[in-house]
């Protein structure tokens, strides 16, 4: 699969943003304007949190006790990005070179109790972040709508997802300091909402929605904020050799949920990103019946959450 096809799959399933230059009050979709040799500098941070929920079952004197268990691990990565427009094509598409430079300590972990489960989660996150942020120079093309085309395929980040890797595809796009411009007419307060059913074999039973809204962004620089919320849920097939479901399980078929929420503030002078806050998560849960002695059915689930902040530097 090429990078272009990966990104195309990502658009309807993950938080992809949009914007472009204009002035307040114009009632038409927006589109980015590029200037040859222009440079943009950004500071980025990526937080990754992995969680697992289960129960511990213990029998004492013919009495069974069920104790909920929760484990988590987190890491934070930081880097700077320098984007330079090498050339602008007649249709407004820009040829861009983006240089990435890690800053400060990488793979900074949030202290956790040194339990075996936490250590396993932390080790997995450390392996990911050690491979993800490295000094690099990316070369790609960006259209006025914000669509990206990269000649060299980008590797899908190893987040341990089952197919399709929605969270990883979302991450590939979300760390770019740009947005995908919606067809929504630009006007503060303008909002659109639609349901979605992806045309992907693994998501045939999926149901989701996408909400897009333009918000005001007060400040010295003319700006607007694009708010996009996307969510998708589906039943996934259990992997081969799936063990017997835990006590109380009503079905061995997991429920998958993808949720993404993005707020991106953009300059109305040229459509560039001023700052952004983007989050996405994927949760896998197994429905279970109530267990005597617990106020709620036990939680058998795993969740990975990504949090990205992007700040424009002077």
Report on this structure.
The protein has one domain. Helix content is 12%, strand content 43%. The longest helix is centred in the middle third of the chain and has 17 residues, at 116-132. Strands 1, 2, 3, 4, 5, 6, 7, 8, 9, 10, 11 and 12 form a twelve-stranded antiparallel sheet that branches. Helix 1 (3-13) packs across helix 3 (166-174). The chain is mainly β. It starts with a helix and ends with a strand. The chain has helices at 3-13, 116-132, 166-174; strands at residues 39-60, 63-88, 94-102, 108-109, 136-142, 148-149, 191-196, 207-216, 223-235, 255-267, 273-285, 301-312. It contains three helices and twelve strands. Strand 8 and strand 9 form a beta hairpin.
Break the fold down into its secondary structure elements and pairings.
Elements: H1 3-13, E1 39-60, E2 63-88, E3 94-102, E4 108-109, H2 116-132, E5 136-142, E6 148-149, H3 166-174, E7 191-196, E8 207-216, E9 223-235, E10 255-267, E11 273-285, E12 301-312
Antiparallel strand pairs: 1-2, 1-12, 2-3, 2-4, 3-5, 5-6, 7-8, 8-9, 9-10, 10-11, 11-12
Helix pairs in contact: 1-3
Main β sheet profile: 12 strands, antiparallel
Q: What is the C-alpha radius of gyration, as a whole number of Å? A: 22 Å
Put simply, the count of helices is: 3
Q: Report strand %.
A: 35-45%
Helix-and-strand structural type = mainly beta
Number of E-type strands:
12
- Compressed to H and E, one letter per element, the order equals HEEEEHEEHEEEEEE
Q: Could you list the spans in which at least 5 consecutive residues all have pLDDT below 50? A: 1-26, 239-245
How would you state the average pLDDT, rounded?
A: 80
Number of domains: 1
How much helicity do the residues have?
A: 10-25%
